[in-house]
Specification:
This protein is an alpha/beta fold. It is built from 17 helices and eight strands. The longest helix has 19 residues. The two termini are 16 Å apart. The model has no long low-confidence stretch (mean pLDDT 97). Bound molecules: hypoxanthine and zinc ion. Hypoxanthine binds next to helix 4.
Length: 346
């Protein structure tokens, strides 16, 4: 680890943007920009309930998670062909590469598509082809299949069965969608099966839901990372558990702001999570909907909360360590991170 140099506040944004990083919490359907929604609607002969890109963007005013999900699932309705999924994936990967993302673990929601008659093969093959082509952009990309928690565990099992012919094309499973009223333990059996299959396990918990959901994601589902997890600060024993077991949290500050989890970015608890010794990371969640990609999440949060270069280094290092990549790759990426910080010190 380099000794973290003092970086004047005016040079910190450039360092935040230039530093190598991993993104571990990005829903690919949430990277669908209004322009691409309109282009895909036209290509597929679909009409949209909004007259223009600007009118659609104006509808992105959310009061909570559910108010976002309603519009997010509607937007994904323009995705029909393998090429659509590929184009969405490549558009995100180009933005990620521009933000110096060296590794990304991409969530996708197959049930949003299979429910509309799009085949699992179309979804996975299109996204996989994009991930493969991400290598040429300098981005290592893998897929994580998410179950929609507002649907039943039986439907999650059916989704898993449909995906198993492409088992080699995704590295793990997650749990997303409406959190309140759908605790992790609802999916205990399907996660146990995924564990037997050697899939990596993550789950959204403690975004809007209580610390009890984070406990059950850990103890019942046996997940390796918690997505969001910001409500954990309300349970001191949980905070000790997360720190002791080095369970990463994939925090998404602009998402939390836009979904009113925190009233302002200044009030975000990212700094408190780091101070408590948790392995926090910074991510974009649904960048097309929440007003920023991963670098915007770093620069806006740092500007609002007064975090500095030392925290920037820790967050970027955490992002690589918390990834599901091979140890050798993690070592190479952290060496690159160290180089950028050593250069910034000169
Ligand atoms: N929470 C739950 N489900 C989601 C989210 C989120 O932040 N983004 C996309 N699906
Ligand atoms: Zn999410």
């Amino acid at each position: 680890m380099p000794s973290i140099p003092h970086i004047p506040a005016d040079r910190l944004p450039a360092l935040l943007r230039a530093m190598p990083k991993a993104e571990l919490h990005i829903h690919i359907e949430g990277s669908l920009e209004p322009e691409l929604i309109f282009a895909l609607a036209q290509r597929n002969g679909l009409s949209l309930p909004y007259p223009s890109v600007e009118a659609l963007r104006r509808a992105y005013a959310f009061t909570d998670l559910q108010s976002f999900l309603d519009i997010y699932y509607a937007g994904a309705g323009v995705l029909l062909t393998e090429q659509d999924f590929y184009d969405m994936g490549m558009a995100y990967l180009k933005r990620a590469a521009a933000d110096h993302v060296l590794r990304t673990e991409i969530f996708f929601d197959p049930q949003t598509h299979t429910a509309r008659g799009v085949s699992m093969e179309t979804v996975i093959q299109g996204l996989h082809r994009a991930c493969r082509d991400g290598a040429a952009l300098g981005v290592s990309a893998e897929l994580i299949l998410c179950f929609l928690r507002h649907l039943s565990e039986e439907e999650a099992f059916e989704t898993l069965e449909q995906a198993l012919p492409w088992r080699d094309l995704f590295i793990g499973v997650g749990l997303d969608s409406s959190e309140l009223g759908h605790p992790p333990e609802k999916f205990a059996r399907v996660f146990a099966r995924c564990r037997e299959l050697g899939l990596r396990l993550v789950a959204h918990a403690g975004e809007e839901g209580p610390p009890a959901y984070v406990w059950s994601a850990l103890d019942v589902l046996k997940v390796e990372r918690i997505d969001h997890g910001v409500q954990s600060v309300h349970d001191a024993a949980l905070m000790r558990r997360l720190a002791q077991d080095r369970i990463p949290l994939t925090v998404c500050p602009l998402s939390n702001l836009k979904l009113c989890v925190f009233p302002t970015l200044q009030a975000h608890n990212l700094g408190a999570l780091l101070d408590a010794g948790l392995v926090a990371t910074v991510n974009s969640d649904d960048p097309a909907y929440f007003g920023g990609y991963v670098n915007d999440n770093y620069t806006q949060t740092f500007a609002a909360t007064g975090l500095g270069a030392a925290q920037a280094y820790v967050l970027a290092k955490n992002s690589f360590e918390a990834s599901f990549a091979e140890t050798r790759l993690k070592r190479d990426w952290i060496a690159k991170l160290d180089e950028v910080f050593e250069q910034a010190a000169r």
